[in-house]
TrEMBL record:
It holds the Pfam family ThiS. CDD domains: Ubl_SAMP1_like. Transmembrane segments: none annotated. It comes from Halorubrum ezzemoulense DSM 17463. This is Molybdopterin synthase sulfur carrier subunit. InterPro entries: Beta-grasp_dom_sf, MoaD_arc-typ, Mopterin_synth/thiamin_S_b, SAMP1_3, Sulfur_Carrier/Prot_Modifier, ThiS/MoaD-like. It comes from the Archaea. NCBIfam families: moaD_arch (TIGR01687), SAMP1 (NF041918).
């Protein structure tokens, strides 16, 4: 299974796309654990008080897992996983 990482998360992991040892039937949480095991420096950025920090968005197929079964959602073949940190900025109105 592949994670797409954005902003500083990609910098910490050293790549924007990271393949982990997770497969259909595993959960999103299993895939996240595999990612954090492979890239332990991400753990401090993603996990807060034992769970995913409120400001980190975990997406499965472009939808926040908070809207579905959370990290207990079962992975299916072809699922796309992504981690987004908070993003700000942009051009000011002129």
């Amino acid at each position: 299974m592949e994670w797409k990482l954005f902003a500083d998360l990609a910098e910490i992991a050293g790549d924007r796309a990271v393949t982990v040892d997770a497969e259909p039937g595993d959960t999103v949480g299993d895939a996240l654990d595999a990612l954090l095991d492979a890239h332990p420096d991400l753990r401090d950025r993603v996990i807060e008080d034992g769970s995913v920090a409120d400001h980190i968005n975990v997406l499965r197929n472009g939808r926040s897992v908070r809207h579905d079964d959370g990290l207990d959602a079962t992975l299916e073949a072809g699922d796309e996983l992504a981690l987004f940190p908070p993003v700000s900025g942009g051009a000011a109105d002129r």
